Amino acid sequence: MIEIIKARLEHADTITKIGKESFLLAHGHSASKKDIAAYLERSYTENALKKELENENNNYHLILKEGEVAGFSNIILNQKNQNVIEQPIALLDRLYLSPAFHGQSMGRLLLQHGFEYVKENNQKGIWLAVWIENHRAISFYTKNGFKKVGSYDFKISETHANPNHIMYCSV
Fold it and tell me: Using an 8 Å Cβ cutoff, are 59 and 75 in contact?
């Protein structure tokens, strides 16, 4: 059985583990080990995730298969982007799956849930940033209706940024 639930504070450790694992898989070779480690230490600690879960602007959801957490997403409503005229729109801040669940349609189901969530909250679309060398993610988002609309430099550290595409999909 597959279900999608709203994440709670007690899920911070699980989100941290999946987030680190997924980030390393997609971005681990994109910067020096020192820069990647520093980014993970800032962004994927249990305390950092607890703060994010406590922030009412973040809307974390978990996808579970047979009771096991397969991945998570975070959507932030009413987040403008200079590359998108439509308003109001939401930001898909994160959508990560544990590699053990790749190829099982979990990402598509979680994204579809996100589309429904933003519609329910009167948003006209979703935008996201994706590293230009993350071909798997770009292909996934393109297959699900997203189009490249701009660019953005994602700061990994004080000395390193990765070029990203801004992608958008109307809902």
Answer: yes
